What does this fold into?
Amino acid sequence: MKNDNMTHLVKNGAIWGFIVLELIFFQVVGSVWSLSQSAFIDPGNMLLLLKQSAPIGIIAVGMTVIMINGNIDLSVGATYALAGIVMLDSMTWPIFVGLGDWAIPLAWLAALLTGCILGAINGLIVWKTGVDAFIVTLGSMLGFRGLVFMYNGQQPTYHLNWTMVDIAEWGAFGLQTSAFVFIGVAFLVWLMMTRTVHGRNAYAIGNNREAAVNAAIRVGPHIMINFVLIGFLAALSAVAFYSGSGSVNPNDGMLFELWAITAVVLGGTKLAGGAGSIVGTFGGVLAIQLLRKGLGHIGAQTETVNLVIGLILIAVLMLDKQLNRKGQEELKL
Amino acid sequence: MTTDRKPALRLEGIVKTFPGVRALDGVSFEVYPGEVHALMGENGAGKSTLMKVLGGIYQPEEGRIFVDEEEAVMTSPLQAKAKGVMFIHQELSLADELSVAENVYLGELPRKSLGRVDWKTLYERTDAILSRLKVGFTARTIVGDLSIANQQMVEIARALTREARAVIFDEPTASLTDAEKVVLFEVIEGLKAEGVGIVYISHRMEEIFKITDRVSVLRDGSYRGTLNTADTDEDAVTQMMIGRKLDLTRNEEHVELGDVALKVEGLSCHKLFQDVSFEVREGEVLGFYGLVGAGRTEIAETLFGLRTPSAGKMFLKGKEIHIRSPIEAIENGISLVPESRKEQGLVLGMSCRDNITLPQVDDMTAGPFVSDGAEIAIFDLYRDKLEIKTPSSRTAVGSLSGGNQQKIVIGKWLSMRPEVLIVDEPTRGIDVGSKSEIHNLLRDLARQGYAVIVISSEMPEVLRVSDRIVAMHHGKVMRTFTSEDVTEDSLIQAISGIESGRAA
It folds into this structure.
């Protein structure tokens, strides 16, 4: 039993070990090559990291839930852009304009509702048709992105409201709003996955769907709820980001789905479902952002960042496969 | 048995048909509280169908089910559970990344406000059940870290979350060691003492006589009677199980045997099988007979390089070989016609011709392209040789009958000119007429000088095609028979693990 606890610890703690390794590496390399005046491990720098990771991080939290449940959602990037447009554009609608700053919460609500509806569409199709979530959300990714372009053509959608910018830029303890949203979301969803019946059933469904069905777990509604949740979170991510920036480009959010999946997988969630954790994803998100910053810090060209992250992702998964408990008796296929 | 009490579970005239098969033909039997009732029958006798009817997975066309003499209509697994009919399946149905407690209460996690899991209650209740079972793990253990035997205990614990009237054990000892069996039997005794009715499905005679009170026998989907275990013996039960109407013609042909084609010494693969030795000669059909889980298929997979053996040696025509992958097996002339044709043997959407030439299409090119002419030549040759009936060489394999599909798989390997052809369950899912055609084909191949290994769980089949039969039990070779000295009884006893000394 002791040995098992050890392997669990190693597996769950791996991402944090990796983060520490990154910190040391960039700190040491940065100072040895004296490429940079400032220290890499600097409190301000580290806190900024949370803000920078927030947009993808919030989505990655939802993606963790979806993947633990045994599905995947490729449409989050498009949902993110569409929710951003709805938020900014709705503030220019005649009914909202008259409300002054009271339009802000309503615009947020409209954006979040958009996210929930788009998520519900995905969930409903996956549930009712039984088509693989990969295919369904590949379709909706294209479809939702189509809606984004239909809204305003190639033109960016913009609306600047200084009160909203103030809210977005508000900060405490060196953290800004979006960082608080990210931390709050991660905490609440962590509670959901570890403490609630819905969360535990999501694990069971992803781990052994047949067993879940045999145990009379209503698989469809659980899947549905999780898709609504990820739609909501994609929209929340848009709300947190665009409140400050005030301008949505129709190509915004592209590849967000892949970055979110990368963070989730790096954080130890299984692609096949049934295992994984929000804490791991949190670490995965930070690790990727740290890598981006760190490579910049030691003066690597930005073009190399993707290559390095890609290589690390593959290396991590290879290591995971090696550490896996079942091995010798398996069929070699 | 006491007849003044009400049976815990009673079945009356259950009939279930599938297209072309009467899987259950008026089956009736009953289990009393505190009774262990064995249900026996050969593979395909209808035991699993009966269990699926009981579990609400299949609806019977006729017949009724009573729990405590109250009629129970089972239309879903949940309903069966609600009525107190619990199953311990042979194949475990667990979420192995979750804790024991979560698996035990899967789908019924106790709740607090806001949909939160009441972990305290969950662990307490689970630990209470586990202490009844006297197991050495706790509610918090992750299921994937448990041994198979302990995982089975989790399944049993799951059956005890509600008040059980009847618990059905389906081949519960298939993957247990002797020590683990003892623990299981204690658990069954405990349930019995609590007044639960137990249905015990097993092929293993020694277990039946050890723990059951009565035995009911199924054969070809119909009920053949019930015996008091104390008043009967293995021979009588065996007699009831196999009956006399099966075609048990034995292979009486003797082909001139050539050299030893494949010799295996002390082959083992972890827990799957141990210390297996045998040889097969050119012109010989060597049959492997045993129950599901005896390790026959795993041996075939090891010979074919799909599994890595943990010990043992293999010699092909006297030369030692090391096979690490199917590619190496094929290069060495070992071919495998796998157990499940549709999943492992064929590319169903591809044509007959493409399936036959699949392993050698690399060598059939004209320039950069696959040569149609060469493919057609190979296809025509084996179509005629094996009498494959297909509208054209372009027909998708998926649309052929089972027998013809099997011939395509066999043709595929014959075209590679193997030294040894391993055929796993040659006639699974094939209708009776085509069965004998496949059997004749296997004999033909021996006559042509191939060394053939046939793995089967059907006794008539091994008897019909084999020159020698290796009887396996629990990953070990129990005895090797020749076609002259084999009898049905001795074969059944050997695969049930009864020492060969007692065999006729």
